[in-house]
What does this fold into?
Amino acid sequence: MTENRRPFPLLSVVVTAVAALYAVYRVREVLTPFVLAAAFAYVVNPIITSFEAHGARRSILVAGGYLLAVCLGAASYAGLKPLIREQFERLGADAPVYLRQIQKLADVQQAKLSRRLPLPPKVAQRALESMMGTGLEKLQNIPSHLFGLVPLFAHALLIPFIGFFFLLDGPNGFASLIQAVPSRYVEQAIHLTSEIDTALGNYLRGIIIVALAITAASFAGLFLMGVDNAVAIAILSGVSSFVPYLGAVMGAVVGGGMALYQFGSLWAGVKVVVLFAGIRLADEIFLQPIIARHSVHLHPMVFLLALILGGEMFGFMGLVFAIPAACILKALLKVSWSWYASETGLEAPRDPGAGVPYT
Amino acid sequence: MGPLRSLKHWFIDPQFSRKKNFLRSLDIFKDLKEREFGHLVQSLHSRTYREGEVIFVEGDIGRALFLLESGSVSLARSGPDGKPIPLYTLKPGDFFGEMALLESLPRSASAAALEPSRVHLLYRSKLDALLQAEPRIGVTIMSHLARLLSARLRRVTSDLRPLPAKDD
It folds into this structure.
């Protein structure tokens, strides 16, 4: 019965994990809806489990939940349909005008600067054209960055569909995984998944709350200020907030630009920027402490490195999932250290009072 | 079968009810309320071990309490010659490995399934989560463990005979 003690096959686990990561990287485009659906199911799962604790069948709860969501979605759309349609029609009509205005503004500023520079006119114009060209190129790149958001909308129907099956399977999938783990390592496997669950679950649920709060607050603020396309800007700001700090910045830049153009005064633009600064501050003061209470704390440098690496390797989706991936990595390191420390006796228990006889 | 009973049967998960009934039969959870058993069931991980399969080995760091629902499990300790010395055979309703809920120390014995055995694991971090979210469940378990620990210690202490005082 006493199996020969073998060292934990850490090397084989690491090699397998690296190979799996490489395979995922190669087929990342195909996996996108599945990853998003898994994240969706993971975030929604606590609602199902809270009802499941009363003994109800999971299949009925998931189907009932979807039905309720469809009804609520349809009712909300019916109520907001005129506003949403009006806002998007206006945006479609005005977009070319906005782009022309930006180009015109750039030309005027370029001409003004070229007159003021203490250089021969042709040299000054060439230098400015080069500089403005770079700036405009960056400006032109903004839509391509925003196109990174398109998968989120393109998979709008596919994600809940795949997510339905993830939710339906729920804990059975995890149970199958535990059943497949060699018996000696069941405790370690559960230890690892518990740590990842604690770190990841709170972070993912947290950013969804933040995204919804930013969308609602942005819409309310912009609507009250009378800024055009409040719905589109609020949605853009909310979706961008999946990338840490980007939501408020995107809202301030696009909303501020819109207000500047619409009202023709700098003050209107400043008011929108102040609104988004306020939203960011409120998020930092009220939401972040609740979200960060139980999730993994990452050093700002690690945070930044994860975002840069994620963006470089997987584009916008990489930016969205960079921090969750960093949370998983940190949980893995934490668990590895805990195993190592326990096995080698580095974490010796301290028992003050253990020497006192039992009375 | 009346329509209400039939509806309930259709709505209620039979596996969930089976697990709940099993937990209700255990002494360690005897003070829990009906609603609390639901949360407890969700905190457990279940696994079926084949005959002869090792559950844990003496010296492994313990991290979970094991509840035996069906089958039988043998506990054994290595003798001086390295051969296993059987200590106890657990039957359905028994639990083992409970000290892992209190501290991360090496297991003092090995456990292996003697026949196909259904085991539920209560992992320590799940117990910690229960202590925060549902304190009554966590406190009930901890209180039972404390009583168990006290009983074992009392038995060991009563077996000890005081040594005569040395006269120098």
